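Ticket #4471: structure output looks truncated?

Reporter: J.K.
Steps to reproduce: submitted the chain below (244 residues) through the standard prediction queue, then opened the result file.
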Amino acid sequence: MRKILILFFIVGLNASVIKVAVAANVSYAMPELIKTFHKIYPGIKVQVLLGSSGKLTTQIREGAPFEVFLSANMKYPKYLYKEKMTITKPVVYAKGSLALLSSRKKDFSKGIMLLREKYINKIAIANPKTAPYGKAAVEALKKASLYKKVKSKLVYAQSVSQAVAYSIVAADIGFVAKSSLYSKKMLKYKKGVNWIEVNQKLYTPIKQGIVLLKNSSKQAKEFYDFILSKNAKKIFKDFGYKVS
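Returned output as attached by the reporter:
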């Protein structure tokens, strides 16, 4: 089974280990989330695999030993719940937002209509078939009556985190998770200069869902409860998510 991105480890030599599947857009907030969780539960080690929600769901379905799944939308947790592969119903832990990002200064006063400009030749986007943020980006383009005009410019990334890299290096601009812009390494990119939030009226709200998977441990339940706690909600808010 092919691994998708990277693993974070937060410590304790004799710690219990829990395995968590996490949507790529949450990668920017995850170190802070794990750091705070570890302060509360120093005896629990968290092992994280990042990737697109669709691919992580496939791995779970094929028997990957994850205990908790943080998806970028509710579709995949609902599917796993329907297939009786979870022990909790899908719950929204945060709502994500789309942003347009460029490493170079752009005239963002035009909003999403900027994508019509002739000097925009490549537009990065997460794969809409497996990444909820990619699906939301396509929806936004269609509602703005831009999809047919810019379809040939689209450069597809495997996940929304890869779309960030493409936006900076390989494309003129790209659709990214707003949360990515709050990580320390991204703070050099300024709102209104390098990025702008996509009008939320153009796409369905990105409700991100969490489930506790079958055969999960007591320690995994502690992490699940933490993600839904006030401490975690504050962190999600700090990274540009909307929480209730």
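Triage note (M.O.): checked the attachment and the full token line is present. The CA atoms of residues 160 and 238 lie 19 Å apart.
Status: closed, working as intended.
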